[in-house]
Design brief:
8 strands, two-stranded antiparallel ribbon, transferase, single chain, methyltransferase, 280 residues, alpha/beta, Arc Repressor Mutant, subunit A, Putative caffeate O-methyltransferase, protein dimerization activity, Rossmann fold
Length: 280
């Protein structure tokens, strides 16, 4: 076996091992968000570097093992560039090396910004045990039919008791306006339900109006990009939670637009998600 094949096999094995441990990253990230670790570091000012002991004190834990447990959590997050890790070594070799942690550019995604916005609550929703348990029924749903969420709870996600319903039914009518914005709405529903909704939107806007949709767009062929990984992951999440829910390709959005009366769509911009405008 030549050296190139050996390197490829090693890379493939490394990938497989990474997949085996991949579940721990979102779990660790959820814990860091719940404990307020990002905010604790941010409050110390730009460029602040805190040890796990510093963070444990600010959290207020009484667990004597907390600094060690936090250090293991923080170094794992540093491997994913969510934090930066700096190791200070004692030149006298009296004290063991000590790690300090600071925010990274990616930390900003999970810090509450000036508008009160963060990806933290969305991650918490995806990792909530109510949704997480649905994955245990994915095989059963494939083999026997049904929606994994429904198989676990005997109802769909929109009827689950923790959901507070607000009066109004977008499948019956939509309030009139020059523009209608829908973020992460269409991916919850089947094509049939989306057509009902989009036809109501069509009726609600004037000739020069538009419907603004914010959704993922799947590539026709799977890619190794971060955007594609998020999109296909979200597609599986929709499949396990909602009846008919799915992410769509650009062509599928065009088909929905044409079938509901719209003349065209336009991809406006992309920052993680796409902003898509539907025109009469």
């Amino acid at each position: 076996m030549d050296s190139n094949n050996i390197v490829k096999e090693e890379d493939d094995l490394s990938f497989g091992l990474q997949v085996l441990g991949s579940f721990s990253f979102p779990m660790a990230l959820c814990s860091a968000i719940d404990l307020g670790i990002f905010e604790i570091i941010a409050k110390e000012g730009d460029g602040a570097k805190l040890s796990s002991k510093d963070i444990a004190i600010k959290i207020g834990t009484k667990n004597k093992d907390a600094p060690n447990m936090l250090d293991r959590l923080l170094r794992m997050l540093s491997c994913h560039s969510v934090l930066k890790c700096y190791v200070h070594e004692d030149t006298q070799n009296i004290e063991p090396p000590k790690s300090f942690y600071s925010l990274s550019p990616k930390s900003k995604c999970f810090l509450i910004d000036a508008d009160g916005v963060s990806l933290g609550p969305l991650l918490a929703l995806a990792m909530d045990k109510v949704f997480y348990q649905s994955w245990n029924e994915l095989n059963g749903a494939i083999l026997e039919g049904g929606i994994p969420f429904n198989r676990i709870y005997g109802m769909n996600a929109f009827d689950y008791s923790r959901v507070e319903h607000v009066a109004g039914d977008m499948f019956e009518s939509v309030p009139k306006g020059d523009a209608i914005l829908m973020k992460w709405i269409l991916h919850d529903w089947s094509d049939e339900q989306c057509l009902k909704l989009l036809k109501n939107c069509y009726k609600a806007i004037p000739e020069n109006g538009k419907v603004i949709v914010v959704e993922s767009i799947l590539p026709m062929v799977p890619e190794e990009t971060d955007s594609a990984k998020f999109g296909f992951g979200s597609d599986l999440f929709m499949m396990t939670q909602n009846p008919g829910g799915k992410e769509r390709t650009q062509q599928e959005f065009m088909d929905l637009a044409k079938s509901s009366g719209f003349s065209s769509i336009k991809l406006i911009c992309h920052v993680g998600l796409w902003v898509i405008e539907f025109y009469k």
